[in-house]
Design brief:
This protein is α/β, with parallel strands linked by helices and about 240 residues long. It contains eight helices and seven strands; from the N terminus they run E-H-E-H-E-H-E-H-E-H-E-H-H-E-H. Strands 3-2-1-4-6-5-7 form a seven-stranded mixed beta sheet, sandwiched between helices. The longest helix is centred in the middle third of the chain and has 17 residues. It is globular, with a radius of gyration of 17 Å.
Length: about 240
């Protein structure tokens, strides 16, 4: 955290949530318990279950979108909110309970110490990737990022990422900036500093991930194509 003589850093956890009625309470409570001083906003992304009702009943800070925009749209909504409210850092924090709030302040401290524009909460800084079809895809994306940027990102698909004020502005203002590995590569190519920090992640407690095997393969191919080809034509954020 910041020095006691300085203004305290303002950190916002952005929680995109689509049909997370079984997980949203424990996710918010984890932040409140293990990341004191961190604000949060739940982006209810057109959920068709009781996610919004639960947030309203509990008095959670929630923004409800009228339709499902997907992760990119929900996350950008949170970044626009962070920009308007003047936050120093914004954290992408999953609503499914897999991320641990205990690592939020350490990630902020790392960003403050080394000037990172983005800090990725990585599962593989000090641990090897397990052998699986999904991890093979992750290894492929790691290779594509290294090929195009010269930097090795061990956990490019991690959904736990911390962004500084400069990145908040870029993600809020650029509609093609999505919280995906190809944008991480774009930021590095544009001179941004991206670092990683070892974190622990839990298994999803309830509900199902939208990424089945077919969608996972399609996702990996799309990201790799974007890193190799499309990102060269994308606008770099300021």
């Amino acid at each position: 955290m910041s020095d006691a003589t300085e203004e305290p850093l303002r950190v916002l956890a952005i929680i995109p949530a689509y049909n997370e009625q079984d997980n949203i309470v424990s996710t918010v409570e984890d932040l409140q318990r293990h990341a004191p001083g961190v604000d949060y906003v739940v982006i209810n992304d057109g959920s068709t279950d009781a996610t919004e009702a639960i947030c309203r009943e509990r008095g959670f800070n929630v923004i409800s979108l009228p339709a499902n925009l997907g992760l990119a749209g929900g996350f950008q909504t949170g970044m626009k909110y962070a920009l308007r409210q003047g936050y120093d850092y914004a954290l992408q924090f999953d609503a499914d309970g897999q991320h641990s709030a205990a690592f939020v302040w350490p990630m902020v401290e790392q960003a403050e110490a080394d000037g990172s524009d983005i800090v990725i909460g990585s599962r593989f800084c000090t641990q090897k990737k397990p052998i699986s079809a999904r991890m093979l895809g992750s290894m492929l994306i790691t290779g594509m990022i290294r090929l195009t940027t010269g930097q090795r990102v061990e956990d490019p698909t991690s959904g736990m990422r911390l962004f500084n004020r400069k990145m908040i502005c870029a993600f809020a203002d650029n509609y093609d900036y999505s919280p995906e590995p190809d944008t991480i590569a774009l930021v590095i190519r544009g001179g941004g500093k991206v670092s990683e920090m070892q974190v622990e992640m839990r298994d999803r407690v309830a509900g199902e991930s939208y990424l089945n095997f077919t969608k996972s393969v399609t996702y990996m191919l799309r990201v790799c194509l974007s890193i190799l080809f499309i990102q060269w034509f994308r606008k770099k954020g300021n």
